[in-house]
Amino acid sequence: MLVAGIDSSTQSVKVLLCDAADGTVVGSATAPHPDGTECHPRHWWEALESARDLLERADAVAVAAQQHGMVALDENGEVIRPALLWNDTRSAPQARALTEELGGAKAWAERTGSVPVASFTVTKLRWMAENEPENARRTAAVMLPHDWLTLRLGAPEPATDRGDASGTGYWSPAEGRYLPEFVRAALGHVPDLPRVAGPAETVGETPWGGRLAPGTGDNMGAALGLGLDEGDLVVSIGTSGTAFAVSGAPAADPSGLVAGFADASGRFLPLVATLNAARVLTSAAALTGASLDELAELALAAEPGAGGITLLPYLDGERTPNRPRATGVLTGLTTSNASRENLARAAVEALLCSLADAADHLAAQGVHVPVGGPPPGTTGRPRRTLLIGGGARSAAVQALAPAIFGTPVTVPEPGEYVALGAARQAAWALAGTPEPPRWPAVPATEFTATDADRAAAEEVRGRYAALRDTSETLGGDSS
After folding, report:
1. What is the rounded CA–CA span in Å between residue 443 and residue 218?
2. Residue 204 C-alpha from the chain's centroid
């Protein structure tokens, strides 16, 4: 039997057709999405239809899509306005206002698992209510991108899963239910919201007779695709950066740094996100007049610490820490260290330090500790760090990451792990078993650090932390 997994991301749609028994990929397709921070959902559907020949071969289908996007529908089920996407930060003021109005950061963390930032759906609803009141009044239903695509694929009613629902800001991972008072505070009324289906539930049937699994968010799909267990840490270097891990207990971080999401298997997926990730490398490549491969060569030719140059990589604002109007800061530049090699090294070190900070925030919540506690003599650090995303293909990132993260780093071979996770969920819906099917581990390469590497990385992280913590006076706006 065959299953199809769909990854509908900000940039494109990717579809994998897989053998349901072992996940072997037998076909694939991709199509682009329009660029920007808002997008009409019809573009997602038009892109997906280009893979219809693959979808029609599938006995079951699941969609994993970008989290948080606000799809507002009228009473006839028509889209009211282009969906506001996760990377649209215009609702930052509304995030702050909602946090204050509904009990403060601690109350939000306890109820929703997270403290809202501009990415979250609930803040986008408030932005629409304040700036487009007629659209808000007409909004009879609200969905997420994967919910809307699942409905178009044949679900008889809107359905979502607990993983994607946990990124809205109005569904509680700990309580397992919507919080209508949070929706009303944002939009002014409570619209229809998708039913939250169980992890392996069938929520409908495609026009060609295949089962529809509930689908999930992209990070939850990646966790399924990688076969994560408790104690594993994933760091993804894509348009945004993320660090996440599967956990047996919900997270509730009142600092707002850790988003206490649910996963797609019935457990939880605490996650820390950064706005600046792979584009730090592309920007550095442009500054040095190098290709990405050449940038890696330049970085590896420099000494650890980049001759004293330190970069704070908040090029497009930042989410962790929450500084939406921050800018990048470069310090330590002198006539003696101003080389392409040192600039390249500083960029790679900055990217990894930012993501290591994200991993540290997870560790502070006890996320890496498997059920039963850490083994004797250990500190509860992750047993391994998996590095994925386009930026993980950089030879410099691979070489420097083990020392900066402080763990061995496993780099799976390049693959569409979000789509693979969606396919695995579809296979789970076919099997009807208590746990998802066990597919073979993906091929991967492991990288380690020497004692000298780790010692040098400690100095690099110390310099980075000092710049991060004083950055408000150097352009790193904390508001």
Report:
1. 21
2. 27
Other C-beta atoms closer than 10 Å to the C-beta of 115 total: 26
Which has the closest alpha carbon to 7: 444, 388, 273, 407? 388
Q: How many helices (H) and strands (E) does the chain have?
A: 16, 24
Spatial separation of the C-alpha atoms in residues 306 and 126, rounded to whole Å: 44
Kindly give the parts of the chain with pLDDT less than 50.
370-379, 474-475, 478-479
Domain encompassing residue 453: 219-412+449-479
pLDDT at 478: 45
Q: What is the pTM of this model?
A: 0.88
Integer angstrom CA distances of residue 450 from 5, 263, 458: 39, 35, 13
Q: Looking at the domain assignment, is residue 430 inside a domain?
A: no
Q: Check which CATH number belongs to the domain holding 362 and give it.
A: 3.30.420.40
3 state DSSP class of 129 = helix
Burial call 424-454: b when 16+ CB within 10 Å, e when fewer: bbbbbbbbeeeebbebeebeeeebebeeebe
Give residue 378's pLDDT.
Answer: 39
Q: What DSSP string runs through 246-299?
A: -BSS----TTSSSEEEE-SSSSEEEEEEES-SHHHHHHHHHHHT--HHHHHHHH
By C-alpha distance, which of 48, 57, 42, 56 is closest to 29? 48
Q: Which two tokens stand for residue 304?
A: 């650890």
User: Do 179 and 235 fall within a single domain?
Assistant: no
Predicted pLDDT of residue 479: 46
Is residue 422 in some structural domain? no
Return all residues near 349 (Cβ < 8 A) that are at least 6 apart. 304, 305, 306, 310, 311, 400, 404, 460, 464
Residues 6+ apart with CB under 8 A from 308: 332, 334, 337
Strands (E), 356-419: 384-388, 409-412
Q: How far apart are CA 478 and CA 430, in angstroms?
A: 48
Measure CA of the first residue to CA of the last residue in the chain; give whole Å.
52
Residue type, 431: A
pLDDT recorded at residue 367 = 79
Beta-bridge mates of residue 142: 72
d(Cα 242, Cα 264) in Å, to the nearest integer?
17
Residues annotated as catalytic are 218
pLDDT at 319: 81
pLDDT the model gives residue 9: 94
Give Cα 119 to chain centroid, integer Å: 11
Q: Based on the fold, state whether residues 66 and 78 are members of the same structural domain.
A: yes
